[in-house]
Amino acid sequence: MTTxxxxxxVSTSTSIQALERWRLVLGEPGESVLxxxxxxxxxxxxxxxxGWLYGRDEGLRKRGIRGGFGxxxxxxxxxxxxxxxxxxxxxxxxxxxIERLQxxxxxxxxxxxxxxxxxxxxxxxxxxxxLKAVLRTKHLMNPEVLRLARRIVEAVVRDLMExxxxxxxxxxxxSRSRRPSxxxxxxxxxxxxxxxxxxxxxxxxxRRVLIETPYFFSRTRRHLDRWQVILLVDxxxxxxDSVIHSAVTAACLWGLPGIKTHLVAxxxxxxxxxxxxxxxxxxxxxxxxxxxxxxxxxxxxxxGLIENPRRSIFVLISDFYExxxxxxxxxxxxxxxxQGTKVFCLAALDAxxxxxxxxxxxxxxxxxxxxxxxxxxxxxxxxxAEHVNR
Length: 390
Description:
- It is globular, with a radius of gyration of 29 Å.
- The chain starts with 11 loop residues before the first helix and ends with a helix.
- The protein is an alpha/beta fold and about 400 residues long.
- About 45% of the residues lie in helices and about 15% in strands.
- It has three domains: about 15-110, no CATH class; about 175-220, no CATH class; about 225-390, 3-Layer(aba) Sandwich (Rossmann fold), CATH 3.40.50.
- It is built from 16 helices and ten strands.
- Strands 7-6-5-8-9-10 form a six-stranded mixed sheet, sandwiched between helices. A two-stranded antiparallel sheet has the order 1-4. A two-stranded antiparallel sheet has the order 2-3.
- Helix 13 (about 295-305) runs parallel beside helix 14 (about 325-340).
């Protein structure tokens, strides 16, 4: 008979850290979990930073999860301002937590000076959360603040383009044919054919093949038929991530051989941004987020851009909540499919591809033959390239 080994005891320091995390989650009302030990110095600083943000949440206060706004670990009112708070969280929390705190500050509690205060904009580290905040609040900024905010847009867009550009260019560049060539260059040495055609000169004693005739191939790019890629992106407030990634995707597609790219933004109005696709930073700084949605009007406009239906890829990026005539919209999408256009209805085009959308309208699109889903930009590039490179 055997018995289970005695489990290793949990160290006191580990136990205290776990209790302190619970205390930080619960705020001042959770003081009892520490059994009177109190927070460590770093724990108190973290609690002050969390209290500055989440202490203003009436819902949490009523449920007794966090104390009132502006408390520092129960030791009195905070004197933090937004700049102090941003500096503190940069030192106290890991990157993922910092971005979550910044997102909640801007989106949940509408602390606009995170992206409209010049002192903050001069020092803050750009990320996608801040980029979205800039796009939503740029109408509040004076020219000097707007200039500083542009730094965030440029940095994040540059990073997104670097990540996406290689995948898109590889997907759309077309394969290279391997044709025999008279030009003998080492990088074009055709190893397989050379060995195969010289096997008659194999020397058993020396166990090697004597190469009498080497072969080389040429690297000529396969011809691509001209295709149109038409991106229609909903610029209502819920689609901010998709607007950003659509601009970056269109910029990466721009100028590729055999591809003619269009980018159209819409709410209740339709704006053709194709002429500005090569500068996604400037394009994003001009986008007006929010407002209603008339997808039908946008699809009608996009349909008019099609030159050759069987060489066109029509990508509608929206949450599908139609403010116009939904039945008319579905008929328009069905007509595009019937004429031979490749139609993709995407509820999101962003890094997460986890959308909130009108499932009923999405199903109606699928019923008339459109491909419906959500994608990352890289997935869209690969999916479209599969058709273009056939």
